[in-house]
Amino acid sequence: MDYKFRCQCPITSALDILGDKWVLVIIKQMLIEDKKTFKDFTQSDEAIATNILSSKLKCLEELGIIIKTQLPDNKKTNIYLLTEKGLALTPIIVELSIWSDENVRELNSIMRDSPEIAIMKSDKNTFIQMIKDNYKSNTEKFR
Q1: pLDDT at residue 130, rounded to an integer
Q2: Is residue 56 a contact partner of residue 80, using CB atoms and an 8 Å limit?
Q3: What's the pTM value of the predicted model, to 2 decimals?
């Protein structure tokens, strides 16, 4: 895949990949909400359109952030799993959660309270490792 970047800046280059409004939502759904199948994603609260979801999953696969495979007991159903590159985004998801809690909550009256936020804030690195370990444990049977 020959990806076009706007410039040489590392932040801009990362945003060229991750800056789309759906990419981090999909990664968050996989990492935290245990979404694996196309149907799982379409039934989420975020309500991503199927054509956009297809496009984003394909892009994430081409970038090596996720892999597509099949359920062991149902070869007709594709599942999507984060790669190590995808799991490396866990600290970004955690930081965004903390930032949102501290800066967006006042703007979003329907934002849910999450006990995990307090844990994230008190021991971020342990929480990040716990999320990664939990994801790996929940997906190892599919690899």
Answers
A1: 95
A2: no
A3: 0.89
